[in-house]
Design a protein that fits this description.
- The chain is α+β, with helices and mostly antiparallel strands.
- Helix content is 24%, strand content 32%.
- It contains 2 helices and 7 strands.
- Strand 4 and strand 5 form a beta hairpin.
């Protein structure tokens, strides 16, 4: 075989090996991916029960209920069009409250019923830490007097 043909064969084998490695990596990561759904998307797409997903939306006002054990909460996540009931056991973030944004990681146990393993509270772009809110430290004024 000529040297030119050997290089071509080696280049093709390297390309096949690279494509195989990428496909194998994608296959392994597919099961680890956690897809994001809004309540409307989750109910419309009939998310597979037990599959790890992220559910995002707003905590519906008046829906937050704490259990007697002090660490289990039930709340509704809404996007304005649909609502999903979620349950979480653990310590919630300080920013988690009714009317605020939330991303819950977990799985659906039944249609419209979500068991959260992790809660991430979202804040708007005007967030101020509680220690600094109201004391004027973040206020900026004009440099001209």
């Amino acid at each position: 075989m000529k040297a030119k043909n050997q290089r071509l064969v080696l280049a093709l084998l390297a390309l096949v090996a690279l494509v195989g490695a990428v496909l194998l990596g994608m296959s392994a990561l597919k099961d680890r991916a956690s897809y994001f759904y809004s309540p409307s998307d989750a109910l419309r797409d009939h998310v597979e029960l037990g599959r790890s997903v992220r559910l995002g939306g707003m905590v519906e006002k008046g829906s937050l209920k704490r259990e007697a054990d002090g660490v289990t909460i039930d709340f509704n996540v809404t996007d304005g069009a649909a609502t999903v009931t979620a349950r979480y056991t653990g310590i919630v973030p300080d920013l988690f409250r009714e009317g605020s944004g939330v991303v819950a990681e977990g799985r659906f146990t039944a249609p419209g019923q979500f068991a959260a393993d992790t809660i991430l509270a979202k804040h708007d772009e005007n967030y101020k830490p509680p220690e600094l809110a109201g004391n004027g430290m973040h206020e900026t004024g004009s440099l001209k007097k």
